[in-house]
Amino acid sequence: MKVYQINYDLRNQRNYQDLIAKIKSYGTWAKPLESCWLIVTEQSASQIRDSLSSVMDNDDGLLVTRLQGEAAWRNLSSDLSSWLKEKLEQAA
After folding, report:
1. CB pairs under 8 A, 24+ apart, for 44-53?
2. Global pTM value
3. Where are the domains of the chain?
């Protein structure tokens, strides 16, 4: 399974509910920061982008990045840190 980071900028109406529901539908997810989510899936970055775009406005920004290899973070909870370490090791 692959780990992806999703970052977004909802610019006008800021309809977070549909986007959050769509992200959570991937099943394995974490929310380390305010507009940042991590998901585990076999889909490609393009497939994730297309899926999430279906619930976003045309002017909203979206960045989907596959995480693998080296990573560093600061001031995340110990539970989230453990989750992230585990998922990145599995994705290697």
Report:
1. 45/4, 48/4, 48/6, 51/22, 52/6, 52/8, 52/19, 52/22, 52/23
2. 0.90
3. 2-91
